[in-house]
Design brief:
By secondary structure, this protein is an alpha/beta fold. It has a single domain, classed as P-loop containing nucleotide triphosphate hydrolases (Rossmann fold, 3-Layer(aba) Sandwich), CATH 3.40.50. 36% of the residues lie in helices and 23% in strands. It is built from 7 helices and 6 strands. It has a 6-stranded mixed beta sheet with strand order 2-3-1-4-5-6, sandwiched between helices. α5 links the parallel β5 and β6. It is globular. The C terminus is likely disordered. Bound molecules: guanosine-5'-triphosphate and magnesium ion (MG). The site of magnesium ion has 5 residues, from α1.
Amino acid sequence: MAASSIEYNYKVILLGGVGVGKTALFNRIKLDEFHENVGTAPSTIGSDVYRFSTTIGDDKVNVSLWDTAGAELFSTLPTNYYRDTSGALLVYCVEDNYTFESLQEWIDDADRYINSEETVWALIGNKCDLYNEVEEYRVAAQCKRMSTDLCYQCSAKTGENVMEAFQDIIASIHKNQAATKLQQSTKGDQPINIYEEQKSSHRCSC
Ligand SMILES: Nc1nc2c(ncn2[C@@H]2O[C@H](COP(=O)(O)OP(=O)(O)OP(=O)(O)O)[C@@H](O)[C@H]2O)c(=O)[nH]1
Ligand SMILES: [Mg+2]
């Protein structure tokens, strides 16, 4: 099969409150590691990026995954964190209702910088190895509000569902982008109807 000449660049950002496990998810995806440091984990300062390349079918895909501190919401995230975002993993902690209730604040903040309708969103209930305080119907309603089917209960600690969620968001972004590219290229291929063009250019304005 011939290799595609098209290269795609996707930026995926982690969003969510302090201590929900964004960095733990980041480390699980990047290193397949988890460090037990309950109560002593330092909050992320600044942001961290993990870049890698992969292929989907014949297409080359360059992915960057961005992690930042949950506390940043209160001091406004640097705009370059949001710039060119293709997908967002919105994380709450399943044993902490408050982190679930604050999700809309993250969406509202992101809305100031990105077109959230063009962004692929995934909802991640992290720490599913612990007691789940958030009722299922509320999670389903939140996914509906976010217009996404990408809804997961994950554990950065055990690794449950983490790679599935990450792979699914990349596949979903790619499906949208590849469809848009195809539409654009077929538009460009469309023959121009010279007669129609001439007709319109000779149309009298009176
Ligand atoms: N049991 C359990 N603990 C977790 C899980 N993920 C993270 N933790 C713990 O939760 C605490 C906070 O995790 P972090 O990854 O630092 O959270 P964060 O969202 O990056 O926090 P900020 O950088 O402050 O915004 C740490 O003690 C982690 O070990 C999980 O899946 N299960
Ligand atoms: Mg962190």
